[in-house]
Design brief:
44% helix; 2 domains; 5-stranded mixed beta sheet; alpha/beta; Nucleotidyltransferase, domain 5; binds 5'-O-[(R)-(carboxyoxy)(hydroxy)phosphoryl]adenosine; binds zinc ion; 12 helices
Length: 348
C-alpha cells in the first residue's frame, strides 16, 4: 500500500485531535480543545479533559471526514495515541479507535505521542524530507523531552526529559503567580515584550556541573517556579516597595529567558555531544517568540540547522498520529493487536 489513507486520533491531553492523511499528504486536521474549561483551574484537569474528549470525538471525526472528502469505508487504517499522556484522556481515544477499527474491520495502529510530534515534520508544506540523525526538542504543557532520532519508525531514543514540571506547565504556573490568565505561555510572552530579560537572574534547573553528570539532558522547572514565587514575596514584603506594583514585565522576561536558555543550551549540547547538526522543534511552547529566536541564533552559531513545523502541527493534533501510522504502514510494519491499552508512561 503506497499511499495509505489513515485517520489518526489524539486525546493525550486537552486537545481532541482528528487528522486524516493520504501517505504524506495532509487531508484534514481538526482540533477541539477543552482549554477554556480548564482556565478557571489554571491548568488541565484530567477528568474534565477526559469528559470533553468523549463529547468532542464523534463530531470531530465527522468534521475531519467531511473536510478530507472521504468516508470511513475508504480508510486503510485507524491510528491512535496510546501514550504517554493523561490516563483517562488517553483511554477515551484508545476506546474510540478500537471501536472504530473493529466495527469497520480496519487495521489499528497504536502509536507514541512523542514520536508523533516528530512525525508532524513530514506534513510541513514544501519541506525537504527530514534527514537522520536529528535531535528533537519537544516542549508543551505536558512534556519536555529531548530525543535522538536515527529513524522515525525504528530508532528513536529518549535522551532526557523533565524531572518535574513541563516547560509549558511552568509558564502556566508562573502566569498564575503574576495574576495572568491561563494559558500562561502567550500571556508571559506578551508581558515580556516590555521587560528586561537580565533584570533578575533566575536559576537554570539541572545546569550545575554536579547536576550535569547525571542529568545532562534532563530538565527541571519547579525550582524556577519557586524562585519566581519567592522573588515576588520578597518584593511585596519590602517596605521600600510599598505602593509599587510588582514588575511583571521584568519578571516575565527574566523567567522566560531562564526557560529558553536551559532548553536551547541542553538541546545544542546534545547536538554537539552526538555530532548531530540538526535540531527539530515541536510542542505548543514552540509558539514562544523568544525560544524560536534564541534557538535559531545559537544554532546558527553552532552550525546546527533548525526545523520548526507550522504551529498547527507543533501543538497536539491527530494528523501527526495519522502520518506516523502511514509511515509505519509504508515501511511494512503490521498493525497493533487489540491487546494494547492506554499507557500514561509509554516509553518511546
Ligand atoms: O502542545 P500544547 O498546545 O498542548 C499541550 O500541552 O497539551 O501546549 C500548550 C502549552 C501550554 O502550557 C501553554 O502555556 C504553552 O504551551 N504555550 C506557550 C506559548 N504558547 C503556548 N508557552 C510559552 N510561550 C508561548 N508563546
Ligand atoms: Zn504533545
Amino acid at each position: 500500500m503506497s499511499e495509505p489513507l489513515v485517520l489518526g486520533i489524539e486525546t493525550s491531553c486537552d486537545e481532541t485531535g482528528i487528522g486524516i492523511v493520504r501517505g504524506r499528504t495532509l487531508l484534514s486536521n481538526t482540533i477541539a480543545s477543552s482549554m477554556d474549561e480548564h482556565a478557571r483551574f489554571g491548568g488541565v484537569v484530567p477528568e474534565v479533559a477526559a469528559r470533553a474528549h468523549l463529547e468532542a470525538l464523534q463530531p470531530s471525526i465527522d468534521a475531519a471526514l467531511a473536510e478530507a472528502g472521504v468516508t470511513l469505508d475508504e480508510l486503510d487504517a485507524v491510528a491512535v495515541t496510546s501514550g504517554p499522556g493523561l490516563a483517562g484522556a488517553l483511554m477515551v481515544g484508545v476506546g474510540a479507535a478500537k471501536g472504530l477499527a473493529v466495527s469497520l474491520g480496519k487495521p489499528l495502529y497504536a502509536v507514541n505521542h512523542l514520536v508523533g510530534h516528530i512525525a508532524a515534520d513530514i506534513l510541513t508544506p514544501d519541506a525537504e524530507p527530514l534527514e537522520y540523525p536529528t535531535i528533537a526538542l519537544l516542549v508543551s504543557g505536558g512534556h519536555t523531552s529531548l530525543l535522538h532520532v536515527r529513524d522515525l519508525t525504528t530508532d528513536v531514543e529518549l535522551l532526557g526529559e523533565t524531572v518535574d514540571d513541563a516547560a509549558g506547565e511552568a509558564f502556566d504556573k508562573v502566569a498564575r503567580l503574576l495574576s495572568l490568565p491561563y494559558p500562561g505561555g502567550p500571556e508571559i510572552d506578551r508581558a515580556a515584550l516590555d521587560g528586561d530579560p537580565d533584570a533578575i537572574r533566575f536559576p537554570r534547573g539541572l545546569s550545575r556541573a554536579s547536576d550535569l553528570a547525571k542529568h545532562r539532558y534532563d530538565f527541571s522547572f519547579s525550582g524556577l517556579k519557586t524562585a519566581v514565587a519567592r522573588w515576588v514575596e520578597r518584593f511585596e514584603a519590602d517596605e521600600a516597595n510599598q505602593g509599587t506594583a510588582v514588575p511583571v514585565a521584568d519578571i516575565a522576561a527574566s523567567f522566560r529567558e531562564a526557560v529558553v536558555d536551559v532548553l536551547v543550551t541542553k538541546a545544542l549540547a546534545a547536538c554537539a555531544d552526538l555530532g548531530v547538526p540538526r535540531l527539530l522543534l515541536g510542542g505548543g511552547v514552540i509558539a514562544n517568540r523568544r525560544l524560536r529566536e534564541v534557538a535559531l541564533e545559537r544554532a546558527e552559531a553552532a552550525g546546527v540547522t533548525v526545523r520548526i513545523p507550522p504551529l498547527s502541527l507543533c501543538t497536539d493534533n491527530g494528523a501527526m498520529i495519522a502520518v506516523l501510522a502511514a509511515e509505519l504502514i509504508s515501511s511494512g510494519r503490521g498493525p497493533s493487536t487489540l491487546a494494547f491499552g492506554a499507557d500514561s508512561t509509554l516509553p518511546v
